[in-house]
Amino acid sequence: MEDMLENRLVKLEGRLGLHKAGNVINVSEELTLLRKKLSEAGCGFLLKIPTDVMKKITDLATGSDYLTPAEKKREIEFGYDLMFERVRLLEEFQKDSEVVFKSESIANVSHHLPALDAAEKEINESALDVQKHHSSVVDLKEKFVILLEQLHYQVLEWESVVEKLEQVKETNKTNA
């Protein structure tokens, strides 16, 4: 019986790509192969987890003594009222939803679809008008900025001309 169980376990390990500890010839090659498989599977981050943390996680996940039977019983007793309250609320929600779904308001929704479609079309047309107006305002703003820059350069040019005239006037006064 044990041999049959061990054979089944060996076959299962073979199907999963696992090797028995006795079959490992070169540990570094096995680790490299394992790292490659983990990385290809998108689980390369597992290699960065410290071994003591990984052991604690594994013990927590596989440990059957996480909760004692007494603690499990206490948890069930503690949550019993809450579970029944949730069941009651779900039943109440189901009854209320049936009333809503069977009402005339829900049945008349299809009659209002043409009006909703017309309102949607009107809103989309208005949105296009607003978008056109916005683009024209943006264009006007860009042209205004260009005009202001040109005026600025014109004022700078006039200032330089005035300075030159003032210098000429000063030189004429000093020569006279």
What does this structure look like?
This protein is mainly alpha-helical and 176 residues long. Among the domains are: 2-66, no CATH class; 67-107. Helices cover 82% and strands 0% of the residues. The chain contains six helices and no strands. It has helices at 2-16, 27-40, 51-62, 69-101, 104-107, 109-175. The N and C termini lie far apart (131 Å). 0% of the residues are buried.
Describe, in short, the structure shown:
The protein has 176 residues and is mostly helical. It is 82% helix and 0% strand.
List the helices and strands and how they pair.
Elements lengths: L1 H15 L10 H14 L10 H12 L6 H33 L2 H4 L1 H67 L1
Protein name: Dynactin subunit 3
Organism: Loa loa (Eye worm)
